[in-house]
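Changelog-linked ticket: protoporphyrin IX containing FE example.
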Amino acid sequence: MENTHRPSRLAKSDTPVDWATDPNTQRLLNDLSARYGERLPDVLEADMLRREITYDDYIETPTLLSLQQTLTDYHDELIFKVYHQQTELWFRLILHEINRAIRSMNAESLDLPVATESVQRINRYFAVLAHSYCVMLDGLSVEEFLVYRKAFGTSSGFQSAQFRAIEILAGMEKDPAHQGEFYWERAARHITTGEPAMTLIRFKEEHLHHLNKLYAGRAPHSLRISFMNAATGAAPDPDRVSIMAEALSGAKGAEIATLGEELLKMDDAIVEWKLQHLKVAAKHLKRAPKGTGETNWAEYLSKSMKEQRCFPELQAAKGRVAS
Ligand code: HEM
């Protein structure tokens, strides 16, 4: 990109300057080199890039705005797509903070206030998402939705891999009573045959391997287990609920109690997100008993909201502390 504001040394003399021998340039470089040492090339490059960068370069607006191709000409489909995309961006930030919170609860780098701040951020992001569901609830034509959704085939938000990663890294456990499956592996059944729907089959093909790996690493790489380790110290205590009750009561210090409270809020924030989502699904699918992949969605979504919690020990301890 041509810079018209800076005076050009070429224009002054009409003869190209030999930078390697030019005394002014050498003096300048010597001064800078004394100041920055070996970092000088990096400093100069970063400075140059910073000066020339534009808003679009940094935000990558053209790329971002190239990602909203719709499958139909229905006006509202763009809203539907953009809303899903913004949700995935917030999910990305939630995962960013989950990872920082986990690192901060690690024994070697224990920093409970940082972990608390991350969980507070997560709760703020979920609150934004729950509030913004009015865009889907009140701002979409049901009539149009029932037509353009046909273009989505068997795809569904059920297949959001980031959402599943959030659940795992928060602390969601597989169900030992069901061959150690994720709870959602028992969902997305065909509404009439009860067989796994294509929505589930395709999702497992694409993501189950990675999600199982995340799950295998959840001890200690999950909020739930990191918090329990931080609260129990080196010796793991078999009575986790008692330890969690102690943590919440403040007997293990104010910092751990505050973090425990924020994690409980996070559990509620996920349920609140699911509740708002259920309201949206119920409104838009009122006249359509089947999910996009012919799924038994109504039964599944209300069950998923009620049963799944990421911090069961903290939930049980909360009851004890309250009583
Ligand atoms: C008109 C709007 C929406 C409708 C009608 C709808 C419908 C559904 C249905 C029927 C399911 C159950 C699974 C299935 O049968 O496919 C589901 C699950 C899900 N949807 Fe949506 N959805 C909507 C908006 C969204 C948005 C904006 C997101 C954001 C990413 C989203 C993410 C999810 C997730 C994560 C699940 C799995 C929930 C769980 O396992 O508890 N959905 N959705």
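Closing comment: Example verified and attached. Residues 254-284 form the longest helix (31 residues). The chain has 16 helices and no strands.
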